[in-house]
Amino acid sequence: MKLLILLFNSIILLRTLAALGSPATNLVYVTPNIKFFLTSFHPFPQSEFRSDEMIHFAVAAEPESRSENPTNAVYCRVFPFKQAYDFRLLDEKGQEIAKTRNGLEYSQPPKLPKNIVEFLKFKPTIVMCNIFPFFRPDEWFKIRKKGIYDLEVRIRIYAPMTNGVLDSATMLDFQKFRKCTEFGMVVSDPVRVKVIKK
Length: 198
Known about the structure:
This protein has one domain. 22% of the residues lie in helices and 37% in strands. It has helices spanning 2-20, 101-105, 116-119, 137-140, 168-172, 174-179, and strands at residues 27-31, 34-39, 48-50, 55-61, 74-78, 85-90, 124-127, 129-135, 147-162, 165-166, 183-187, 191-197. The strands form 2 sheets. Strands 3, 5, 6, 7, 9, 10, 11 and 12 form an 8-stranded mixed sheet that branches. The longest helix is centred in the N-terminal third of the chain and has 19 residues, at 2-20. The radius of gyration is 20 Å and the shape is globular. The two termini are 35 Å apart.
């Protein structure tokens, strides 16, 4: 009897693992001092969402304690919201799910500034632990079938650079940040979470 129970539990475990597909990566570092993750409005990464659930994104600072001016804040510039993210939803076979009109509108390719007027559109921001409403998968993707989907999201920021290399020290020091004139686009690795359509 114990053997049957063990066998039954093993089968359930294998089916559950097979249904999960690719592993979730629910937190990534955009830079060495900025974390990005998806959540349901709490300060912890989450790896699974319902398709009708509001997903929030979080950008959190992780300053280097060895810097000259240790702080709980990190400074960068942000892309306009419609250009700040790249995301896609994959079905169980790895096929990409089409985006709705809203999904297309909020995943535009980035446009880097060509002059000072365009540069000023990239608003300076202080990253501490910022959590914002993002989207409901049902509203940004044409999900027609029930199942488990893989959502991948990347964030783009405009960060201080020195000779084309990320300048983390300037990101931690407001006086240096406000005088900085060399910026570049930084794109995170994808956050990968599960979306369940019931």
